[in-house]
Amino acid sequence: MRKQFVLFTFLLLGIVAMHADSMAEYRAFADTVRADVYSMDLPAFKVRDIPEKYRNESAVYKAIYENFDAKKKTGVGVRP
User: Which of 54, 71, 74 lies closest to 62 in space, CA to CA?
Assistant: First the structure.
């Protein structure tokens, strides 16, 4: 019984450690994508004027950019 408890504890700690690594990798990937998005120089997003008919609205979409590809290297199929 004690061996099973020790084995289970190590297994649980291993799973938690793997999750922490994947979260760190995700954070680095998200920071890279965020930097790419904010560094885009698109004239439509530099417009600061809001038309008079939309002055009292709580939110106004002035530009939408929907064509952004963010690919993460997963390591699958990568040869050393």
Answer: 54
In whole angstroms, how large is the CA radius of gyration of the chain?
Answer: 23
The two tokens of residue 2 are: 């004690």
| pLDDT for residue 5 is more than 80 | no
How far is 57 from 3, CA to CA, in rounded Å? 65
Residue holding tokens 């990568």?
Answer: 78
Residue from 33, 80, 43, 34 nearest 63 by CA: 43
In whole angstroms, what is the distance from residue 56 CA to residue 15 CA?
51
**pLDDT (tens digit, 9 = 90+) per residue, 14-61?**
776 665 557 777 888 888 878 887 888 888 888 888 889 998 999 888
Q: Which tokens hold the place of 31?
A: 């920071």
